[in-house]
Amino acid sequence: MRTLPIVALIVLLVTVASAQQKISENEIEAAIKCGLGQVKCDRPILTPGGLSAVMLDWSVTVTPPLGRIYVAARNAKDKYLPFARADVSEDMLASEIHVFVESTASKMTELRDVEHVVILPRGKNEGAVQPSRIDAVESEVKNLAGASFKKISKRAVFKLADLPPGEFDIVVVSSGARDFRAGVREKDRQKLTLWSGAGS
User: What is the strand order of the sheet 133-142 is part of?
Assistant: First the structure.
């Protein structure tokens, strides 16, 4: 099984200690204004989605609480829609990370359905953290000839308090392929804290 570090870092996870702290109203308001472009962000600027890695025909995207608020506000701005505190859902505020995984193979015959997603301590095969819930996301893709194919991606939700200490791997179990691991390293977790709500 090959393990690759997550690159193209955009939004980040959180430390377990930070996971226990409630997001303040000031942090929520700052994330909204940052997403709407009303203030200069005091956190690393994000591109759509979150912490992202695209490699070996897989795309893995992770979003923590403040990152979800920021992305929602920015998406609203891009559509010329308003976005305010009342638009912040409980799902956005939940003390959890959302992991979206999809196959991005260039050849239709190599597209794989995601069967499951877990988190493991770095380099380990034991101590798997199971998602608190996992949703199937069905999409349709077309090849150059116009033929349509259905692809099953997954959104896995993990509670912040359940994350293992230190570095860990996001493990993707797919149909007809080896497990894929996207590594979250210590430097990534430190940056992710900024988008998790540390009560600062």
Answer: 51-55, 58-63, 96-103, 148-159, 133-142
